[in-house]
Amino acid sequence: MLVLQESCIDPLGSLVIYAPIDFPAIKSAINGEDSINIPILPSGFIISGDGRPGKLGSRASTSSSSKRTGGLLLMVAFQILLCTLSHSKQLNMESVATVNTLVSSTVQKIKADLDCSNVE
C-alpha cells in the first residue's frame, strides 16, 4: 500500500490530503496499463483560524479591556469504499463503529499534535 499525499500552507490555513493506493495498481499504471480502475479515495484535514482576532495562545489587542484569543477550526473528511450494501440499504453497526473510531482517533491525534488535546 502506498499513500499519495499533498499538503499546503497559506494565510487561510493548512491542509493535508492523502489517498491510500494499492501498490500493484500503481505498478500496473506505471507499466502503461489503463489506470481508470484504480480507486483513489482522497481523505484529509484542514486546519484554519476561527475568525476571532489574535493567534492561538496569544492575546489580541483590542480597544476594550476584554481580550480574546483566536482559535482553530479542524475539518476532517474521509472517503471510504464500502462493499455492496444489504437489501435494506443501511450500514451495519460494525461499519458505523469502525468509521466512528477512525474519525475520533484521527481528531484526537491531530489535537494532541497541536497541543490542544484538552480543548473540545
Automatic annotation (TrEMBL):
Q: Which top-rank group of organisms is this from? A: Eukaryota
Ranges where the HD-Zip IV C-terminal domain occurs: 1-116
What name goes with this protein? HD-Zip IV C-terminal domain-containing protein
